[in-house]
Structure formats: structure tokens, C-alpha cells
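Write out the bound-state structure for pyridoxal-5'-phosphate.
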Amino acid sequence: MTAYRDMSREELLELKSRLEKEFEDVKGKGLKLDMSRGKPSKAQLDLSMGMMDVLKSTSDLVCEEGVDCRNYGVIDGIKEAKQLLSDMMEVPKDNIIIFGNSSLNVMYDTVARAMTHGIMGSTPWAKLDKIKFLCPVPGYDRHFAITEHFGIEMINIPMTSDGPDMDLVEQYVENDPAVKGIWCVPKYSNPQGITYSDETVHRFAKLNPAAEDFRIFWDNAYGIHHLYEDKQDYLIEILMECKKEGHPNMVYKFGSTSKISFPGSGIAAIAASDENLAEIRKMMSVQTIGHDKLNQLRHARFFGDIHGMVQHMKKHADILRPKFDTVLSVLESELGGLEIGSWIAPRGGYFISFDALDGCAKAIVAKAKEAGLIMTKAGATFPYGKDPKDSNIRIAPSFPTPEELEVAAQVFVLSVKLVSIDKILG
Ligand code: PLP
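---
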């Protein structure tokens, strides 16, 4: 493969006219494809259908602590759900609170609580002139939407293959008291699939924040979402690490079963130090008399224990792996050596992150749309929807069928090639 930049103008023009013809043919097919949604496919949702049979009208609906799950009570979550989720999140079961159906909701509430009431006696963030959050980029748009919603200034922190640039993180956190938080997706990150290295986690735990109410928002949404049995990433457990370093209160850890059972109908949890949890419980007891215990019971009985959940995740992986492989092999065979884009082959999670030539992402997404392929909006992976280089595109291979994906990946690479040629030709 010759890199596009090494081709002559004539060669590029000739290639362009060939690719344009190909593109017109594809357009003529009236395709309707979508690689924008990080959702499990129907086949994946079907894996959890047994959960619907776990609770019947004749079932005993009393949980381990002897409470009838049909009724009010047990604000923290039932014992068996706490055991399951604490094993999933690798924390002691006394350091977890089970919430409702969405971890994003818990993250929103956590920021909202800090805004209105402050953290452990510190000034409520809303009363301060300026509040800042560090945002490793590319990252998860819904994290950024929460901080934008509350008027919190967001600062881009570039991701490296080991996680966020820790020199920058330390510089901001340790010197600027307005920096109150950082969004982290530490394992199989959204969208790059990067897992933070041991050194990165150590450096997080060793942070000496300028603000006493600084918190790490550790969203381990893809903690057990491996694609391969023989190639799995390992992440150091942050709660224990912060405790060891003498900063037990510095982290809020979030998780949910959204991409394990049913997104929107799973269970979510927060894990944190005793002191943090005591404060959260206080607010919770005003907010609710308790979350959906029947759903907690259904999850606990369906999975049995963490081993059941791990086995279940292997079935997800069997469905997801060929889809990732399809997209990655099309990227490799069609774009390898052309030097018009780069990507990382992840070992887990839900996404492949593609970096186009600078200034090309928006045009590529628009081009793909012309041919009937919907991609995640360019810029979505950055705070305020603004990718300074206009280069990053998130690819979500989970939802389409394998056949659709093959076609979608071809449309994508064709769009990348055409837009890149225009860029090089100037
Ligand atoms: N966190 C990350 C990093 C995600 O990618 C997603 C969904 O895509 C969520 C959280 C949403 O989680 P939940 O369904 O528990 O609100």
C-alpha cells in the first residue's frame, strides 16, 4: 500500500474518480445502516431473557435479610444484590450502595449533590465562582453533558495508551483548587478501549489535590466486558489503592449491569469510602424510600453469583467479538498503510475509536450519511461537542448484524478515503 501523501496529484485524482464511482454505486443501493449506537444487539438482550422467568407469581419474594421485596424498605439494596455488584466492582460489600436502573443517573446526582450541598462540609460548588472538571479526551459524551449542564468548566486532558496524561492531571489537580473532579472510564474506555496502566492508577491514588472536595469520578462501566478469553486487560482496584495512599475519600466508583443484562432495566451502584457513603445515604433517604428491589432480586437470582455473571459475559463476548473483528479487518485491509487514519484494536468494551487526518472527521461522518450510514456525530467525544482537531470518530459495532456491519465498514472506509484525498489535494 502506498501512503496517499506519497502519491502524485495525477494518481490521487485518478483514484478519486474511481472511488467516486464506487461511492455512487453504494449510494444507489439505498442503504440504511447505523454504527452510532453503543447498544447491545437483540441477540445479546436475548441472553438475559431467563431473568423474566426468575420471578413468578408463585415465587418467594423475600430477600436474604427477610424483607418482602414487594414492599418498601432496604434503602441500600438487598444483601444478595450487594454481594453480586460488590464482586463485580471488586469492592467490599459494605462499601457499596445499590441504586436504580442507571449509573449515569447516580453520577448526575453525585454532581448535583456537590453543587447544592457541597462535599463533607465544604462550600457547595454552586456558591463558588468557578468549578472545573478534567475531561480525558476522547471520552463519553454523556459525562461531558452532565458537567456542561451544571455550568462546570471542562478542561481537555489528552488520553495516552496508558490512560489520561498524568503529568497534566497532577499539574491541574495539585495546583488549582477550582478543579473539583475528573471523569474517568478506566477500563476499555469509551471510545478508545484503553485500560489505565498500573502506573496511572498509582498516580491517581497518590494525588494531593489542592481542593479538599476533589473527587475522581471512576466510571467502570466496562469492568467485566472482555472480548477475548486469552487477551484481557487488568485494572488495579482504585478504592483500595486510594485507601492505601491515605486518600480513602478521593474516589467515587460507579458501575451498572446495563450492558450485562438489560440497558435501562439493569441495576446500578456506587462504591466509595464509609464517610462518602454515609453522606450519600443522607441525601438518598430524602430522595427515595428505596429502589426497585424486585429487579435486584431478579438479577441476583438469575446470575447466582459473580461466576454466573462472568459466564454470562462470555456469551456476550461470543456475539460481540466477530463484529469487532469484522470492522477491524476492514479497517486494516482497506486503510492499512495509507496513513489517512489510525485506530486501536480494543480487548473489550463497546467501541473502536478512529482518528482521521486533522480536519476530516465531520466531513467523513457527513459523507457516510450520504450513503445511508449513520455514525456518531463528529465532536461528540469531546467536551462541548468540539474536537479541536476535528479528527476523532467513534465506531459502535455492537448493534448491527454481522452482515450489515461488513457493508457499513466498507461504506465507512470509502468515505474516509474520499475525504482524505480531498484534504491532501487541498
Ligand atoms: N458510562 C459509560 C462510560 C457508558 O459508555 C455508558 C453507556 O454507554 C454509561 C455509563 C451508561 O450507564 P447506565 O446505563 O448505567 O446509565
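---
The mean pLDDT is 97.
Residues 64-304 form a domain with the Aspartate Aminotransferase; domain 2 fold (CATH 3.40.640.10).
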